[in-house]
Amino acid sequence: MADPFKQLFENKPVEKTKKDPKRLSVERIYQKKTQLEHILLRPDSYIGSVEPVTQQMWVYDEHVGMNCRDITFVPGLYKIFDEILVNAADNKQRDSSMSCIKVNIDVENNTISVWNNGKGIPVVEHKVEKVYVPALIFGQLLTSSNYDDDQKKVTGGRNGYGAKLCNIFSTKFTVETACKESGKVFKQTWYDNMGRAGDVNLKPFKGEDYTCITFKPDLPKFKMTILDKDTVALMSRRAYDIAGSTKGVRVFLNGNRLPLEDFRSYVDMYLKDKVDELGTAT
């Protein structure tokens, strides 16, 4: 007869509970990220999808003109370009003497620049943050000129991200702004998704104000290798949008002035070769 107490006194090693290899640790489940890391990990919350989509859009093709066709583009890339372009157009509201915007899209070097001759950003040190104002605006998150709710809003963004999103999704991002009032021109470059800031370059300045933003989109983050034809056509259309809707501002695209004299000439680009319900050409 088996001894019922034998197993109680046998010196056998206690079997350890096997760990589930698929089970995540508490540290992996609950993580704290910096704001910059969160933007890069969850870009759709800030700039929209970073996946290519195909849909019918109005675009401007060099040899066709304005036309509506199926294109494949990445909304997130379109968004960061638009942030910079709209910033330039908004400057007209701050400075009525602004008269020119220049957009350059360099496909070969994957470089985009937007220049305007409106009032420059003050090239002075922020007394609270102890950095130059242009560096604060373009290189630090949640900084904005639109936080004063007592001021009437006539321009675009107000959430403190804006152009910094373009910096974050670029491998290289350069700000150059000249301010006659400050008597200086400021230039600084950020690298690696705003992860590294170059030195501030200051020079005396006596000319007319301007601001130029130049950036290299981080194309792999948008599942892209080049600025393709569809993307350039969509960005070109946005340049025409600005030319048609910003009164008193000449817009240049890759060195060529866009031939729009007023809003009517902009609308006509969409109506060419169209007929009304009676078959009459419009």
UniProtKB/TrEMBL annotation:
Q: Tell me yes or no: is Transmembrane helix among this UniProt entry's keywords.
A: no
- State one molecular function term (GO): DNA binding
Reaction equation(s) it catalyzes: ATP-dependent breakage, passage and rejoining of double-stranded DNA
Asked if the keyword Transferase belongs to this entry, the reply reads no
Name the GO terms of the biological process aspect: DNA topological change; resolution of meiotic recombination intermediates; sister chromatid segregation
Which CDD domains has this protein been placed in? Answer: HATPase_TopII-like
Report the protein name in the record: DNA topoisomerase (ATP-hydrolyzing)
Q: Where is the Histidine kinase/HSP90-like ATPase domain?
A: 72-221
- Entry keyword set: DNA-binding, Isomerase
- The EC code for this enzyme is 5.6.2.2
Q: Which GO terms describe its cellular component?
A: nucleus
**Could you tell me the superkingdom of the organism this chain comes from?**
Eukaryota
